[in-house]
Description:
Blueprint: E1 15-20, H1 24-34, E2 43-47, E3 59-65, E4 74-78, E5 80-84, E6 90-93, E7 98-104, H2 105-117, E8 122-135, E9 138-145, E10 150-160, E11 173-185, E12 194-199, E13 209-218, E14 221-230, H3 236-250, E15 256-269, E16 276-278, E17 281-283, H4 299-314, H5 326-341, H6 346-356, H7 359-366, H8 372-380, H9 384-393
Helix pairs in contact: 1-2, 1-4, 5-9
InterPro entries: FAD/NAD-bd_sf (IPR036188)
Organism: Streptomyces halstedii
Pfam families: Lycopene_cycl
Amino acid sequence: MSPAGTARAAGDAADGVVVLGGGAAGLCLAHRLTEGPALPTTVTVVEAPDGPLRPSERTWCYWEAGTGDFEDAVTASWTRLRVRGADGTTVESDPAPLRYRMIRSARFEQLVHARLAARPGARLVRATAHEVREAPYGAEVRCTTGDGKPLTLCGRHVFDSRPVRTVPAHRTLLLQHFRGWFVRTAAPRFDPGVADLMDFRVPQPRHGLAFGYVLPLAPDRALVEYTEFSRAPLTTPAYERALRHYTAEVLRLGPLTVDSAEQGVIPMTDARFPRRTGPAVFRIGAAGGATRPATGYTFAAVQRQSRAVAAALRHGRPDVPPPHGRRQLAMDAVLLRALDTGRVDGPRFFTDLFRRVPMERLLRFLDGGSTPWEDFGIGLRTPVGPMLRTAAELPFLARRDTGRSEESPR
């Protein structure tokens, strides 16, 4: 994998593919395009140089059966999952053959960078991409390198994974926002074999819902997060207060040390994200709608999307197929709307769903792998009246660019 200095500039022959962004979506796609049988073309990945534009380390989680392509980057995995209701009710299950996995972005980047370095058609460019323009041969990307020099890259196809600045027109927009601590306790407090997906034994906000999230890494180490689904994020001090309460009063962890922290915001919306912005320019990852609207999970959909894009290019039809099916998106739109209007009680809804539906089936549903009959059965295990009322209302609501949900009576 060649450094930035060897990248083709404007006027040279165009690269086959330019991928903007070196996160999960960009690197997954570059990996798929260069694995055997690789495309007979070059693939250039543009990553932000070290500095304020380069994101801090992130955690990505997903479930998968068997051994995946990125198993060497997995930090931890769990065979049993648990959901705790607001009243302390516990639902615990083994979703075999699925296993819940955690990947840290730094380890993932190291793995994929090493694989790309062994493939002669792959290049890594450390630069900030400013503008993408159409060109007779495809598109050109205008960048600035880490040392301040201008650089123009030329490609027959450009796949852009950079975050979008605004959410497209929508009827509902909730934010999944969170702060997590990587903690070390003075005594063993965790069961490394069980991950807590949702723990609703935390104070609930006036609008939306809140839960704890615990991924044990050892008997005395874990990632502990406080998460909300609501319309606006909190301040960092507010997250810190919530985490102190959760670790001390709910989990009763006793003395602990916070080794590091992470914080983020994920839009959960029924907006339609365009996957093509020009004849040769495509959007991938969260920017291309890969985030599952009702859950915020993205990593598994990014992998599916990357495989589909690579297959399309190999057949000479550059395209970004939709990462989620229409049926799944329609059901997610109803759920988001019902949560946002308060027609369903969030903690009770999710606790009852995990209690009434086998966990393996529910996880396949959340990943878009369930059958229509299974989807129908899952729908019957939700509050049918409020969900039907919400489904009947949705077609009459306008999509807005307001940055918040379309108002409606409960």
